[in-house]
């Protein structure tokens, strides 16, 4: 595991090489470094659980590569969006507005989905019980499962969007701190905390939908 930690430290140190780059290149590099660091740690932990030793190191290396590519994609997106604004302050204000919008939409979606889940749980539970007692046909289960799967696909899409926004906001927050825009940084901190909470709730809802779908596999 010490080797894994060494890989993570090395990846994190690489982000320091972003000094002296253009603003756009630095944002991309920071995104890649952050993604690689997180990926290395996750990959190393998975490898360690699988047997440790070289497997953990290989897992860290693979995780760093995958995470680095994802992080670079986030960084590239942020850099591209940032170029549209005349000043750092305007860019950060736009980031805050975006976070507020995604927060509001994700919370509203969570509220609707939570209510729908209660109904789906009751409906599918009754349907499965009836099917087990030969009171319902297999086709009814399949039809209901398709409805649940459609809802799951929709929820997954909303979740991916919220996660993408969260990663972009984290990179923008790093920019705010670096440029000394503390007022915007504090507001972004607040929005990120709210979005993390909304993402966690939506993850729980998607897991519940997946569980319902699995129970209906006949």
Topology of this structure?
Blueprint: H1 2-14, H2 23-50, H3 54-82, H4 88-132, H5 138-178, H6 182-215
Helix pairs in contact: 1-2, 1-3, 2-3, 3-5, 4-5, 4-6, 5-6
Features:
single chain, 218 residues, 2 domains, 6 helices, disordered N terminus
Structure description:
The chain is an all-alpha fold. The protein has helices at 2-14, 23-50, 54-82, 88-132, 138-178, 182-215. The protein folds into two domains: 2-82, no CATH class; 88-215, no CATH class. The model is unreliable at 1-19, 36-50 and 56-64 (pLDDT under 50).
In short:
This protein is mainly α and 218 residues long. The protein has helices at 2-14, 23-50, 54-82, 88-132, 138-178, 182-215. It folds into two domains: 2-82, no CATH class; 88-215, no CATH class.
The secondary structure category is: mainly alpha
Give the count of helical stretches: 6
Number of domains: 2
What do the pLDDT scores average to? 74
Main β-sheet description: none
What is the overall shape?
elongated
Q: What is the helix content?
A: over 70%
Question: Could you list the spans in which at least 5 consecutive residues all have pLDDT below 50?
Answer: 1-19, 36-50, 56-64
| Beta-strand content | under 5%
C-alpha Rg (nearest Å)? 22 Å
Spell out the helices and strands N to C: HHHHHH
The N- and C-terminal alpha carbons lie at a distance of 43 Å
Number of strands: 0
